[in-house]
Amino acid sequence: MQASSDRIQRIVIVGGGTAGWMSAAYLARRLSHLPVAITVVDSAQIGTIGVGEATVPAIRDFLAAVELGEPDVLAATDGTIKYGIRFEGWGGEGHGFFHPFGLYGVPAGGIAFHQYWLKLRASGHELPLGDYCLATQLAERGLFLPPSTQPGSDLGVFNFALHFDATRFAHLLRRLSLANGVAHVDGRIVDVDRDSRGVGAVRLADGRSIEGDLWIDCSGFRSLLLGEAMAVPYVDWRRWLPCDRAIAIPCRGTHVHRPFTTATAHRAGWRWHIPLQHRVGNGIVYASEHLSDEAAETTLRAALEGEALAEPNRLRFTTGHRARFWAGNVVGVGLAGGFLEPLESTSIVLVQSALERLVALFPDRDCDPRLAAAYNRQSVLEFERIRDFLLLHYWANGRTGEPFWEAMRAVELPDALAERIDAWRAGGLFVRREWDTFQDPSWLSLYAGFDLLPDRTSPIADQMEARDLLIAFSRMRDAIERAAGAAEPHAAFLARHRPRAA
Ligand code: FAD
């Protein structure tokens, strides 16, 4: 049994960006039964990264955990609904597909829908996959329908995420955290005192010193505690994900009620379009080896749908992660732990899973290395799984005559990804692994989106005749039509919820 003096009593979160305030809000709730003081130290002088506006559906679990209502978050952050991502130009100019947050079709006789779809396709029936996915249909028609919570309901087969203004989201979490007893210190950290457990205290520019038992490093790319003080090296993944710069420019919008993110390929990377209620978030992600900063900015400006609302925010990054996310008594969360480029909006969900993992493995003051080892193993696996999913977007590209994209098609794949693609090609099989963020339908949307089809159709799909399958497929389309018919315009949904939240 541990003595109470061995328990963690002081958690210090270094950094007040999205990761810092998510950590504060979450830990304040989850540890509310423990006598733990939580302090956030950040520097208004340094500021935050100012991007990170698209999420995945897991954000809804986070909001529920910190007891924030979705309509309130949408109102406070001028947010919108996101049913997935529209990819433009990845398979070649003029080619597009949708990665939805939802299932495709329904299985029949225990056989997965996609096996029948592949069979019909092979026999000459061009059936767009998106016609069998309610999330895709809602997105393309600009509608909103909440997924049903009734078990077994046909309308529960999809989910949604949110887009939000990153600065407003951090402010909202900050207000919530402070209301729940979190302390806040505005000060620039200029020195870190090490002790036998890792970090003992941080010193601020104004001479103050702050002590802690457990440190959550949310200091952004600088990784002040984990990278600098604890000297944990960085694992560089640029050979797989070579985009290393981004420029973000918000603008006035005309397409602010699209309930989806758009990711449009350009000659050396891609651009994002994130619709918010008060503006559009735009950015260009590119490989500096293939595109100059000037050319990138010109490309981005040419694509803005309205007047630019701020100066460009120029960012540099290296995809990868710290070799250990938890070292001594320091846990790196957010950009301080690692960064996978924003193609599938996965950084915020990684913050969330890091916090869930930390609570599950919550240590005493000695920070048992066995807990840290388990934490690190799980975190690395989760990062690797997402890396492979992102890499598939690049490797499967169908763009021609552009050195960046030619090089991406020739990249040597990590074994785990090569195995997944082989299984798919051999018979439309999905490989499922521990700590996968993206499930079968996400992989299907990409394989189909890139026309990467299995070498053969599976004999198990032969149990239904093509004629019967076509009738079943037509019924599925009818069911989706009926469901979409019950949805309301996304714009109306947002307008309806504003006054209530206000
Ligand atoms: P930051 O926002 O950089 O915060 C760092 C904090 O540390 C600040 O408060 C700063 O003041 C403080 N700090 C630093 N040094 C000191 C010091 N010496 N003393 C005191 N305080 C200090 N994620 C998504 O989920 N979806 C997206 O769509 C998405 N898009 C992105 C696009 C780009 C181009 C990039 C680069 C990232 C994107 N991300 C996205 C990632 C997302 O922006 C971050 O994960 C998220 O904002 C969290 O950042 P952070 O809090 O770790 O770091």
Average pLDDT, rounded to a whole number, is 96
* Number of separate strands: 23
Roughly what percent helix? 25-40%
Query: How many domains make up the 3D coordinates?
Result: 3
CATH topology of the largest domain: FAD/NAD(P)-binding domain
Described by the principal axes of the CA atoms, the overall outline is globular
Give the DSSP E fraction (strand runs of 2 or more residues): 15-25%
Largest sheet: 7 strands, mixed
Cofactors, ions, other ligands: flavin-adenine dinucleotide
Structural class: alpha+beta
List keywords for this structure.
502 residues; alpha+beta; FAD/NAD(P)-binding domain; 36% helix; 19% strand
Describe the overall structure:
By secondary structure, the protein is α+β, with helices and mostly antiparallel strands. The chain folds into 3 domains: about 220 residues, FAD/NAD(P)-binding domain (3-Layer(bba) Sandwich); about 170 residues, no CATH class; about 70 residues, no CATH class. The chain has a 7-stranded mixed β-sheet with strand order 5-4-15-16-17-14-18. Strands 8-2-1-12-21-20 form a 6-stranded mixed β-sheet. A hairpin with a 7-residue loop joins β4 and β5. α1 runs parallel beside α9. It is globular, with a radius of gyration of 23 Å. Flavin-adenine dinucleotide (FAD) binds next to α1, β2 and α9. The site of flavin-adenine dinucleotide has 37 residues, from α1, β2 and α9.
